[in-house]
Design goal:
Structural class: mainly beta
Order of helices and strands: EEEEEE
Strand content: 15-25%
Largest sheet: 6 strands, antiparallel
Helix content: under 10%
Distance between the termini: 107 Å
Shape: rod-shaped
Length: 195
């Protein structure tokens, strides 16, 4: 493989270094014009460019790959990662996402979270709102609180093979119309008042 190498010097245009690979149809160019450093690798189908100015470095290419033992990226202001295709973050060890301010996660269609153990903790309040909300435990589901309120605007249903309601002090069952019904109905107590 024979290469054509050129060096051009100009007091107005700066320095241009060019390497031409005619067999591979590849031209490599580096220009230093006093304001911008531009590295260009142009092939038959694709072109990659690195443009460096005093306040910015821009990389334009088809595939951008970084291989390193460790990578640290810091910005004193904003950071943006955007993909028009699939955006993936994978870790074979622990992954952490921390924010000193608000942290928003949103999806236009579907948002899924999956783990062997899942825990959500809030110091002040936690709220789940949806058109339809389902909480399911294949073995057991528990809802606990210092005060517990279950409210249905139109109706509320509690159903199970066995249903037990117990209170340590006082239990009130009240309704405009109240029906207690069963094949066998037991009403027991040391003092029972009806009416």
């Amino acid at each position: 493989m024979a290469l054509v190498c050129k060096i051009e010097l100009s007091q107005t245009d700066g320095i241009t270094l060019t390497v031409i690979n005619k067999d591979g149809n590849i031209t490599q160019t580096a220009t230093f014009d006093g304001t911008t450093i531009t590295h260009t690798c142009k092939g038959q189908d694709n072109t990659s460019t690195i443009t460096q100015k005093t306040d910015s470095i821009t990389v334009d290419c088809k595939d951008f790959i970084v291989n390193a033992e460790s990578i640290t990226c810091k910005s004193t202001k904003d950071t943006l990662h955007e993909a028009e295709g699939t955006f993936s973050i994978n870790s074979t060890d622990k992954a952490s996402f921390n924010s000193s301010a608000d942290f928003d996660v949103s999806a236009t269609s579907k948002l899924s979270m999956e783990a062997a153990d899942f825990s959500v903790t809030a110091d002040n309040s936690a709220k789940v709102t949806a058109l339809t909300t389902t909480i399911n435990g294949d073995n057991k589901a528990s809802v606990t609180g210092l005060e517990l309120a279950l409210t249905g605007t139109t109706s509320a249903s509690l159903k199970g093979a066995t249903v037990k309601a117990a209170a340590d002090t006082t239990m009130d069952v009240e309704g405009l119309t109240t029906t207690v019904k069963g094949q066998i109905t037991n009403i027991q107590g040391s003092l029972v008042t009806l009416g």
